[in-house]
Write a structure and sequence with these properties.
single chain, alpha+beta, Naphthalene 1,2-dioxygenase Alpha Subunit, Chain A, domain 1, Rieske Iron-sulfur Protein, 2 domains, seven-stranded antiparallel β-sheet, 9 helices, binds FE2/S2 (inorganic) cluster, binds fe (ii) ion
Length: about 375
């Protein structure tokens, strides 16, 4: 069986017979190339919080699986997503990360674009006959959902609201519109395939073992449960114990069923968010190469979150635990004399993710 057919067959299996993906699918360059084309360059991809791009000219530049993209709040107050590559000789226009500017001047020869990607200036043009309208930056579709910005490089992807239909009633209970204070991104490079980082972020099976002193003490594995899901998204949840929230006592008596739980929202290929009464945090994972990915985290809050040493240490500690275990798994993925085993009920969200992979990668081949 070809490596593609083997991955398809395992990724399509129902929960009752679900297994880990073939190890080769976490290292293989051909599978990575297929994922880049069929997933990252076709589906809606999470970018950042809308709140982070609220001022005119604020932008976020990043590589969407090798494709340089910039999202900017235009002078028309709309979000515009476009290629971050100069139309002259291909220089990256904006440095990766957040910034603010209402003109994008190429660092090479100074060709200049506005916030809609329109070429507005060519220094030292001389007698060259250059049609500016023919040299604008290619535009991509951008949309928002629940305060989050998504982009797709595809003209054919079904709408974002269609992909995410059905999640909203669950979110409503948390009144997420309260969360208006954004906390800046942290970004790390992990030596692991992007799928491993995503599978790890979405399942709560590993908490008791990997996060014994950190997350397990607050959101234990034994209290985690599956809510609803499928190929487009999955909701899981769990009980928060030892909650330190100041509003806890006030709300707990009448709303305990909602607020003593966290809700974990997994939106493949790249977003896993966790919402509690106090916060809306997420990580996003983007591939860099078959065995490297970038992992970003950020969040929205109703009031400025605690940044005391204890809280910061807690967050840093469990991130470090996740990075270490994912990189350790990655080094097992080179094995040719072993293979992945059965998944357990607590990994049902991973099975949904595998179904997403199967449908995106293989449905039309
Ligand atoms: S490459 Fe951008 S101005 Fe020359
Ligand atoms: Fe973890």
């Amino acid at each position: 069986m070809s490596k593609f057919r083997e991955m398809e067959s395992i990724a399509s299996a129902p929960l009752e017979s679900a297994r880990s993906l073939p190890f080769a699918s976490y290292v293989d360059p051909d599978i990575y190339t297929l994922e880049r084309a069929q997933i990252f360059h076709k589906d809606w991809i999470f970018v950042c919080a809308e709140q982070e791009l609220k001022d005119v000219g604020s932008y976020y530049a990043f590589k969407l699986a090798d494709e340089p993209v910039v999202i900017v709040r235009g002078k028309d107050s709309q979000l515009h997503a476009m290629s971050n590559v100069c139309r002259h000789r291909g220089t990256i226009l904006c440095e990766e990360g957040m910034g603010i500017s209402t003109r994008f001047v190429c660092p090479y020869h100074g060709w200049t674009y506005d916030t809609k990607g329109v070429l507005i200036g060519i220094p030292h043009q001389g007698s060259a006959d250059i049609d500016k309208a023919e040299h604008c930056l290619p535009q991509f579709r951008v949309d928002t959902w629940e305060g989050l910005v998504f982009v797709t490089l595809s003209n054919d992807a079904p709408s974002l609201s269609k992909k995410l239909a059905g999640i909203e009633p669950y979110l409503r209970k948390y009144q997420s519109e309260r969360f208006q204070i954004s906390v800046p991104n942290g970004e790390e490079e992990w030596s692991t395939n992007w799928k491993l980082a995503m599978e790890n972020a979405m399942e709560s099976y590993h908490l008791f073992r990997v996060h014994t002193e950190t997350l397990e003490a607050v959101t234990p594995t034994r209290e985690a449960f599956y809510i609803e899901g499928g190929r487009d998204w999955t909701l899981t949840g769990g009980k928060i114990i030892n909650a330190r929230s100041k509003v806890w006592d006030f709300f707990a008596p009448k709303e305990s069923a909602v607020f003593e739980n966290y809700l974990l929202i997994s939106i493949p290929p790249s977003f896993v968010g966790i919402i509690t009464y106090d916060s809306w945090n997420w990580i996003s994972v983007l591939p860099i190469s078959p065995q490297k990915c970038s992992v970003r985290n950020a969040g929205l809050y109703e009031s400025k979150p605690a940044s005391d040493k204890e809280t910061m240490d807690f967050v840093q500690a469990f991130f470090a635990e996740d990075k270490a275990i994912c990189e350790r798994v990655q080094s097992g993925m080179h094995a040719t004399h072993s293979q992945g085993g059965r998944l357990v009920e607590l990994e049902r969200v991973v099975v949904d993710f595998h179904h997403y992979l199967a449908s995106m990668l293989f449905e039309h081949t």
